[in-house]
Write a structure and sequence with these properties.
With 115 residues, this protein is mainly alpha-helical. Helices cover 48% and strands 8% of the residues. A hairpin with a 5-residue loop joins strand 2 and strand 3.
Length: 115
């Protein structure tokens, strides 16, 4: 998953309240940290910040500012792409949920016949 996709997924999960660039950067950084590879946090933060600035310039942009400094959300009112993303991510989460199956204890009792 690329940084762009991760950013959009995070914004989708954040909802209408939005989320700050700092928190988005932290989430993207944590999603990409592995045992063998750790990206530079400053590079991730810079990428997220540039992505937000680039994709929130017009009324039809995918991302919009919430009015608070440094906080963004998906532009669901002015962007049809953002509305489609919301539907796609919701469908993925519903499809990934497994139905709960009740587990029965089929183990044998160790002390059943001991008196």
């Amino acid at each position: 998953m690329t940084y762009d996709q991760q950013i959009l997924k995070i914004l989708t999960e954040a909802g209408e309240r939005g989320i700050s660039v700092q928190n988005i950067s932290r989430h993207v950084y944590n999603l990409n940290c592995t045992f063998f590879h750790q990206p530079d946090y400053e590079e991730v933060r810079s990428y997220v910040q540039q992505y937000m600035l680039k994709n929130s310039k017009s009324q039809q942009s995918l991302v919009e500012s919430t009015g608070q400094r440094g906080c963004y959300r998906l532009n669901t009112t002015g962007s049809k792409d953002a509305q489609q993303l919301m539907l796609q991510f919701r469908d993925e989460t519903v499809a990934n949920e497994e139905p709960s199956v009740s587990q029965q204890d089929l183990s044998l009792d160790l002390f059943d016949g001991v008196i």
